[in-house]
Amino acid sequence: MTTWIIVGIIVAIGLWLIATYNGLVGGRNQTQTAWSQIDVQLKRRHDLIPNLVQVVKDAMGYEQETLTKVVQARNAAVAATGPAQAGIAEAALTQATRGLFGLVESYPQLKANDNVRALQEELTTTENKIAFARQFYNDSVNTYNVRRQSFPAVLVAGQFGFGPAELFSMPESEKEVPKVALR
Questions:
Q1: How confident is the model at residue 61 (pLDDT cuts 50, 70, 90)?
Q2: What is the C-alpha to C-alpha distance for residues 88 and 171, in angstroms, rounded to an integer?
């Protein structure tokens, strides 16, 4: 009789261990998939920006400083790895892109250019997709991190190498409300 009780306890612990491990694997994989979705949208953004810069450059040969900042920020964003580094690089790229959009607004011939408008619209759409992908990623990270830190899964997580996942966050400078100057 006691043998069956011991076997039952061992089986229950084994099943719990398997279920907990599989749940942690699922959470980690969900987080990795969500990061891949951000990566896809960031690649799209990185591909659109050179086209926009080229169209603006063709339409106006000066204002090279703004165009150079955008290209440098884009190159830094492409080279970024991991959520923390990508967050900083993408924030710098957003700032540089805003400067380019401001430049476009101040030149009527650029503002009226169909290619510039189309590229700005594509970039804006991509920015929205990035925001949704970032939210989904951070939700996935939060779910995974809460699960791995909760008792009793915390007993299994450390033993099997389930480390914390990193949130994709923006630096403080990106959180500031942009200033709008009306003439």
A1: low
A2: 6
Structural domain 2-169, CATH architecture = Up-down Bundle (1.20)
Cα angle 144-149-151, degrees, rounded to a multiple of 5: 120
What is the domain partition of the chain in residue ranges? 2-169
For residues 168, 171, 177 and 182, what is the CA-based torsion angle, rounded to 10 degrees? -110
> Mean of the pLDDT values across residues 116-137?
84
User: Which two structure tokens, joined as six digits, stand for 179?
Assistant: 């200033």
Assess contact for 88 and 74: CB atoms under 8 A.
no
User: Residue 46 to residues 19, 41, 52: CA-CA distances in angstroms?
Assistant: 40, 9, 11
pTM of the model: 0.68
Cβ-based neighbour number of residue 170 at 10 Å: 13
